[in-house]
Structures are given as structure tokens and as C-alpha cells.
Specification:
single chain, about 220 residues, alpha/beta, Rossmann fold, Arc Repressor Mutant, subunit A, 2 domains, 5-stranded parallel sheet, 4-stranded antiparallel sheet
Length: about 220
Amino acid sequence: MRLLIAEDEKHLNKTLNERLTKAGYTVDSCFDGEDAVYYIENTQYDGIILDVMMPKINGFEVLRIIREKKILTPVLVLTAKDSDEDIITGLDTGANDYLTKPFSFAVLSARIRAMLRVKENVTGSILEIADLSVDTTTRQVKRGDNIIELSSKEYAILEYLMRNKGIVVSKEKIEENIWNYEYEGSSDVIKVYIHHLRKKIDDNYKKKLLHTIKNVGYVIKED
């Protein structure tokens, strides 16, 4: 899941980036409202964490701009502005949630998970197909009763495929959703991760779930 952090407080921005990356998200960051609008208009994000008091364009104005452009990406406003009027303004302008500073990272993480579940129309935290399950809260992957250990990138690719089960996704789409703007690799890297992922979730099982569609991409599905 790819997130944008728009927060001008550099230490907080860096901390959120590091902790959300460690939690398994792909994260881009910016420090002012103009850059936030540019990133949002040019990148398909799963969620946005948006400060209000930013240089150039404030967060409420960023919200107004992207909603007028029919960009419906879920937005969690994260700000020190905690008056009822500010909260009402944020929600009425198009925010999906509003969290005031100071906050705990655990609460922020839970709010993000809840926001993304609504976006994906998922009522719980478990993604399943056949006997393969992915718990998006604990990041535990199981095939039947067997727990499968994955690297962070393997897990991110699997979760993305599971959220799009039955749909063929291209290498470019995987790259766009799993790597941030700092990534300078190639599609060969994705092939390597898919190879390792297939070995872990399919090789020891009769029913194969991860399929390569030649010259198109990859799909999780039952035969």
C-alpha cells in the first residue's frame, strides 16, 4: 500500500516515513502544499496523511483542490489544529479522518488501516484465496496451517496481488505501488521477488495460486 506524507515538520515527517516503511508501507514524503498537490495528481496513492499548516498551500486548500479534481484517495488530516471548527472544516472539505497532535503511532496506524479497509471495501484484516491467508494487521501469511516467512518486499507484493486477486497486474503497476520515487531498479528486480514469492507460497503445494501471464503481468487466482 502506497502512502503520501505531506508534513512540513521535518523531524516528524522523517519519523513517520521510517516507521510506516518499517510497518510495510511504501512511502513518499513532501513538505509543502504545492508539492503535495503535484504528487497526488501524478501518483496513485492508497492513502494520504496531510498536515494543515504547511507552506505555499495549506492542507485544507490541498483537500479542496484534489476533491474538485475528483481525486478520491482517502485522506487522514494530521494537525495541531484541534478546534471543532477546524475538524468540521477538514471533514466537510473531504477528509476521511482527522487526528490531532500529539498522537500515538499505534492510534495513527489503526486509523490508517481502518481508512484503507474502507477504500478496499474490506470489512476485516484477513485477505484469503483458497488456503492462502494474509493478515494485513499482523502481516502473518499462512498456507493452510503453515506460517510462511516473507521479506518486507515479498509481503508487500503479495498483499498487493491479494487485494487485486483475479486481476492481472503488470510489472509497472507493481513497481508503482510497491516502490517509492527513490527506487531506481528495473522490472528484473520484480521478476526476482516474484520467483522467491512463488517458491514460498506455491512450490510445496499442489494447487498453484501465483500465475505469470506472459508479456502482461502476474495474478493471484485459483485455477
